[in-house]
Design goal:
Elements: H1 3-32, H2 45-50, H3 56-62, H4 66-74, H5 83-95, H6 103-116, H7 121-124, H8 130-151, H9 156-182, H10 194-203, H11 207-213, H12 219-229, H13 237-254, H14 260-275, H15 279-285, H16 287-309
Length: about 325
């Protein structure tokens, strides 16, 4: 497979996973902005801090205005991480590899692109139907994942797409976790109730699972356990790295190139630091340091992947 093709497939799924993560956080932020019991003291702040480059003063101004925050996150092209920009980049990558993806995947990608560029969307998100717009985007994102899963052949292209997806998912979970635990000083003993953690868990589609599988005490420990190490939670750091490791090994086996062994080893060190870790180790090292390490190593892996397989200089 040409490096250009592999690069586009990898970034197609990274962008789509980023869009999905942002939409889920936006929905949570929008709903909780009407909640009189805002235990975490946050509504739009997480989305604006994670998906924009605004300074603190600009964030403070926007987070009090639902309409302005929605517009900036959804359709403002001055925000390089707005949904409109991300979907446009994803579509550009998909357009360059139309012969490598199925017709159904391309059609769904086009549908989402026209959805975010529909006439009058700015007016629609200013009224009571804003939540319907967000839900429609989430449904389209879910359909993209389902269509991709049910129609794409399981070859090299599939491996690159899913490596991109799981890389981005791991980064988003680490980023979300870092932001919310920062409010506690990264201290497991600074106990917060479930209302504090609700927005984080909802944004990662893990609230229902948490209520079913974890006790109604020691919420800080339980949330960290779920988001970092839960083997059955598809958005945990461990699960994402485990799947990424599988796809990377498949890529290395089918396309051994110079540097692929070193790349697999470096990723293996990161994977092992999560697979064989536990909360006791994390508490000793410091949760903040641990999350920073995971993000730093994963970003370095992404750069090394580009140099090894995508011919980045």
């Amino acid at each position: 497979m040409l490096s250009r093709i592999a690069d586009s497939l990898y970034w197609l799924h990274r962008y789509m996973e980023r869009a999905d993560g942002m939409l889920r956080l936006m929905k949570t932020s929008y709903i909780l902005s009407f909640d009189k019991v805002q235990a975490s003291g946050m509504t739009w702040e997480p989305a604006l801090k994670i998906f924009t480059s605004l300074n603190q003063q600009e964030v403070e101004q926007l987070k009090k205005d639902n309409t302005a925050a929605l517009k900036y996150l959804l359709i403002d092209t001055k925000n390089t991480n707005s949904l409109k920009v991300i979907i446009t980049r994803a579509r550009e990558n998909a357009r360059g590899v139309q012969d490598q993806i199925t017709k159904e995947v391309w059609e769904q990608m086009n549908l989402i692109y026209h959805q975010v560029n529909q006439p009058g969307i700015a007016e629609k998100i200013t009224g009571p139907d804003a939540i319907l717009i967000i839900d429609a985007f989430i449904n389209s994102s879910d359909q993209f994942c389902g269509i991709t899963d049910s129609t794409m052949p399981r070859g090299q292209g599939w491996n690159y797409m899913n490596l991109g997806k799981q890389t981005e998912r791991c980064l988003l979970t680490a980023e979300f976790t870092h932001f919310y635990f920062k409010k506690t000083g990264f201290d497991f003993k600074n106990e917060q109730d479930i209302l504090f953690w609700r927005s984080l868990l909802l944004a990662l589609s893990g609230y229902e699972l948490h209520l079913k599988n974890y006790s109604n005490q020691h919420h800080n420990y339980n949330v960290a356990q779920q988001l970092l190490f839960d083997k059955n939670f598809p958005r945990s750091v461990y699960y994402a790295l485990d799947r990424a490791n599988k796809y990377l090994n498949d890529i290395a086996a089918s396309n051994p190139v110079e540097g692929s062994i070193q790349l697999s080893r470096s990723f293996g060190r990161l994977y092992s630091s999560v697979k064989f870790a536990d909360l006791e180790l994390v508490e000793r090292e410091g949760l903040e340091n641990y999350l920073i390490y995971v993000r730093k190593e994963l970003n370095e892996f992404s750069r090394d992947l580009g140099r090894t397989y995508f011919s980045y200089s």
